[in-house]
Amino acid sequence: MDVPGVGETRDSGGGSAGGARRRLTVFSEHWPRAAVTMVLIAACVGVDLVTRVEGSIGSYLVFMPKLSEQEPYRFLASAFVHANFWHLLLNMYVLWVFGSVLEPVIGHARYLGIYLLSAVAGNAAVILTADPLGNSWFTATVGASGAVFGLLGAQLVVARVSGADLTGFLVFIALNAVISLSPDSGISWQSHAGGFVAGVVAMYAFSRARVLSPEKRRIVDVVAFAALSETLVVVVAVWGYS
User: Fold this and answer.
1) What is the mean pLDDT of residues 198-204?
2) CA neighbours within 13 Å on the CB side: how many for 56?
3) Among 109, 111, 107, 110, which Cα is nearest to 148's?
4) Would you call 87 a catalytic residue per the annotation?
5) What's the half-sphere exposure (Cβ side, CA atoms, 13 Å) at 167?
6) Catalytic site includes residue 192
């Protein structure tokens, strides 16, 4: 935060650029370090409550390869819908545990971008592995798991770059992979895998820009998000639905 000192004059002009920057700095310092994580949890809980009151709403939000070609909003909306209370509780617990650590490190904007990108990538993986002539083309998928696994992938990159011990983290990921691949788990391993890969790729791209100035890092962020989003659109449109 800018603190006026010797030789510095406090800008009293409410409409000046300096005053605006100071107000933005004060706001950001009081903004909770895990604010996006809390908003995402609140959104998932809110959607769950709404769907419990009116169950038919869920049918407009779930992801299904057959429906999502004409209703692409489902690629993202399905990440806020959960199958039951325990599904919601588990995802929100993992989101809080990892999100509250990762978000302060990489920043609110990058964190939110990775979360949303991973949610879409998880459903894109479902499309790419589904059989248009089989039941998988008409199977509904819900939950924030793909997005959460994207955060796990991002945190793996952060830990690797910072030189942290990855043993416990890799064991956690391996256990989740085994559970996801269990035939009777009812879990979409495709969503987990797609989200995880998206998180790794996005965070790796951002980590390459850490030596640049803040202005140039913002440009890299925008370009990286745009490139990854465009790649997902092309892959889904050309490969998944062709």
Assistant:
1) 91
2) 0
3) 111
4) no
5) 1
6) yes
Tokens of 51: 């769907």
Choosing from 68, 145, 180, 188, which is the catalytic residue?
Answer: 145
Provide CB contacts within 8 A for 212, sequence distance 6+: 220
Residue for token digits 């969503």? 191
Evaluate whether 239 touches 190 at the Cβ level (below 8 Å).
Answer: no
**In sequence order, what are the residues at sequence separation of 6 or more whose Cβ sits closer than 8 angstroms to the Cβ of residue 2?**
21, 22, 25
Q: What is the DSSP letter of 84?
A: S
Q: How far apart are CA 163 and CA 233, in angstroms?
A: 34
pLDDT in tens, 124-153: 999 888 888 888 888 888 889 999 999 999
pTM: 0.80
What residues have CB less than 8 Å from 95, skipping those under 6 apart?
Answer: 37, 40, 41, 44, 144, 148, 151
Residue 223 and residue 205 in contact, taking contact as beta carbons nearer than 8 Å: no
Domains of the chain: 17-240 (1.20.1540.10)
